[in-house]
Amino acid sequence: MKLLIIYHAGLAEDSKHIFEEYARQGIDVTVIVPKKNGSLVYHKSHDKKSFVYVPLKFRAGFSFLGLLFAIKRINPDVIHVVDEYTSLSLLQAIICRNILYGKKVPVFSLSFQNLPLINPPLVFSSPLSFLRRIFHKLLIPFMIYYHKKNLAGVVCGNKDAINIIRGFGANIPTKLIYWGVNLKTFTPKDRNDCREKLNLPKNVKIIGYFGKIYKEKGLEKLVRAIERLANWHLILVGNGDYKGELENLVSSLNIKTRTYFYDFVKLSELGDYYNALDAYVLPTYTTKDVKEQYGRVLVEAMSCRIPIIGSTCGAIEEVLEGYPAHVIFNEYELSDLIDKIKIAEELSVPESFNGKDFLRKFSVEHFVSENIKFYKNEN
């Protein structure tokens, strides 16, 4: 099978493990990625022996002619667009496919969308914003209609995403497949050894959050909880537009000596940070624009056998279901988060827990094999 993957974040480190696994399972893989998309910039050093990158110009979507000629040159058997059901990249891929092959080459998408689509009101704040809103109002309904007529199937990254697709009236195959995590990178290690390696104190309780530092991630609530729990320290790994404000809050609450900020940690080293923790927390709260779609960090923490505190936001409870060392708190209540941190202090994963079997559904190997079955219309 000659598989073409189109993915705007295909240069990310975790994506490469998935592409390499496709090749290991006997699939001829080519990946179309942006030449530049934020901090992800293509360079020849990204190229691998097991699969091929094709970099194209990218803004809101790919260069249409570049995409058309690339698909023609690759001549795939299957096209998989790793993007939402109503994404411009998916629309472009389907149009290019239809021009080149009609419907002979199946196109699949991967959707995590778990918030209802909201059509913005036609507010005339400026001529440009008004035109953008008209475009949005016309384009989204068109894509919903056009895609359900042209897609071979949609891989969904959470249960709510399946309901969203069905809500569009799309009578096309859907399948729940959790995004693949390279579990080999995340294994249990001795806590004190990891703390010594990271120069962290050994005789305290440490809780951690790793990911984007955005307001909606609930980090203000987490910091205020730690301020009230004098026996706990906090590790924050990541960056984002809320980091400066969060650092100021840490200073104002006089907990700088109990809080450790890390801007960037290599994926290969992140396991040491998980294993240094007494508990991991994902405190995201729901807004009109934000709802946790998966939480790869939850899988990474489970793979290290770390107790986890998750909020009621989005897919967090779904992902943690069946993991014996987790608790869920009300995403909007600080007091509940504090109570659950106290409970987490006593949690541990029992020796009888078969982590390998439980985590298999989140593995790179499972993600790839289930996608291949879906392409072939197998169970």
Question: Which features characterize this protein?
Answer:
379 residues; alpha/beta; Rossmann fold; 2 domains; seven-stranded parallel sheet; six-stranded parallel sheet; 17% strand; globular
Radius of gyration, taken over Cα atoms and rounded to an integer in Å? 22 Å
Strand line-up across the major sheet: 5-2-1-6-7-8-9
Might you state the CATH topology name of the largest domain? Rossmann fold
Shape: globular
What proportion of the residues form beta strands (DSSP E)?
A: 15-25%
What level of helicity do the residues show? 25-40%
Number of helical elements? 14
Q: What is the name of the CATH superfamily of the largest domain? A: Glycogen Phosphorylase B
Mean pLDDT rating: 93
Secondary structural class: alpha/beta
Element-level helix/strand string = EHEEEEHEHEHEHEHEHEHEHEHEHEHHH
CATH architecture of the largest domain: 3-Layer(aba) Sandwich
**Gap between N and C termini, in Å?**
18 Å
Low-confidence region ranges: none
Q: How many domains make up the 3D coordinates?
A: 2
User: Tally of extended strands?
Assistant: 15
Outline the structure in words.
By secondary structure, the protein is α/β, with parallel strands linked by helices. The chain folds into 2 domains: 2-180 and 363-375, Glycogen Phosphorylase B (Rossmann fold, 3-Layer(aba) Sandwich); 186-352, Rossmann fold (3-Layer(aba) Sandwich). Helix content is 38%, strand content 17%. It has 14 helices and 15 strands. The strands form 3 sheets. A 7-stranded parallel β-sheet has the order 5-2-1-6-7-8-9, sandwiched between helices. Strands 12-11-10-13-14-15 form a 6-stranded parallel β-sheet, with helices on both faces. It is globular. The protein starts with a strand and ends with a helix.
